[in-house]
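Allow me, if you will, to draw on your knowledge of protein folds for a short while. A protein sequence and the structure tokens that stand for its backbone fold form the material at issue. I would ask you to consider whether the tokens describe a fold that such a sequence might reasonably adopt. Thank you for your consideration; the sequence and its tokens are set out here:
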Amino acid sequence: MKRIYRFLLHFYPARFREEFASAMERQFQDEYRDSGGGAGFWLRAFADLAASIPGQILRELRSDATYAVHVYCRRPLVTALALTALALAIGATTGVFSVLNAVLLRSLPFREPERVVQVNKSPVDTGAGRAKFYDWRDHNPLLEQVAGFSVNEMNLALARDSARVKVAETSANFFATLGVEQQFGRGFAKDEDVEGRGAVAVLSHALWQEAFGSNPRALGSTLRLNGAPLTVIGVAPPGFDYPDKTSVWTPTIFDLGRLPKGGAFFWQTIGRIRKGLSFRQANAMLRTEEARLRPASAKKAAPPGFRPVEGESASLKSLRDQLAGPVRDASLVLMGIVLFVLLIACANVAHLLLSRVSERRQELTIRAAMGATRARLAQHSSIPCWIGACWRSRRG
């Protein structure tokens, strides 16, 4: 029991232990002997330690901070230089890391996002119909779920307002493929992407708040996209705006006449790799399958050593890498640069601190001769000094 209590005493500051540890141990032994060491005794002992330890730590920090203020007020230029270097380096590192976290580290708002990929050169990319697309999906050995979409800007007309928004025309299994559940209402039903049936829409959370004032009665209301009426059946969860900051989703990718539009538009395909397959394995199997299914005439027409450029053959690409694009490499390089700047700032501050400690060599020698421990000397000459300088600058 004495060893346990002695261990708990180490949470007190060193100076307090030097003065009172022996007396507290004797008092603990006497009270333990008188009470028999029951549960009530330990509860009182822990309560006393929990109440007194924070107060003693704060008292010592206040003492060190007060002393640090007096010391560093004599060297205001050194203190200002160190704080400025640290502030600039930490600020730059924090800003760049925020960008890196949003682009590369933060998890995508999908179910198992590491398995979601973009498929190049799928049937939907070439404008194939619904039957061919779903036949390719059902007989695909690599992807357990596949969905198609196309993004366009359209005019949104509500009862009292209108706006220009991005609309994603998708297949019916778009939300199921990504593993996204609607916050309100429902997603698309299985056959709602059949031609002539896709007169429904899902709103983004931001559009729902802006256009309907977060009113749940928005479900069942009618909106018009380029003049075509659609019924609102759901609201997407907050933060979900894939692809390309979409505001409205509608299952009309195979029904080109449902929403009037002009100009060029492109189809894209996403899928979810089957469990047990790695990204490299799935990509290799896709290329093998494509080579097997390629017509013999195409093989004969290709000259020896010909390798199709990217985009001419089917391939899989991680959706995270696709969303990051060229920003990925630039963000990593920039993060490395600012980390190097942070290390330089820390080295400069350490050098300044070491020079200040060298000036106080005689003082520290006297403190050591009077019994101060190494931990106490390090605490008194480094961390509390900077805390005190910051505290002084804030009060000033």
Q: What stands out?
A: The longest strand covers residues 143-157. Strands lie at 116-120, 143-157, 162-170, 184-185, 200-203, 222-225, 228-235, 248-250, 268-273, 315-318. Residues 72 and 124 are 69 Å apart (CA to CA).
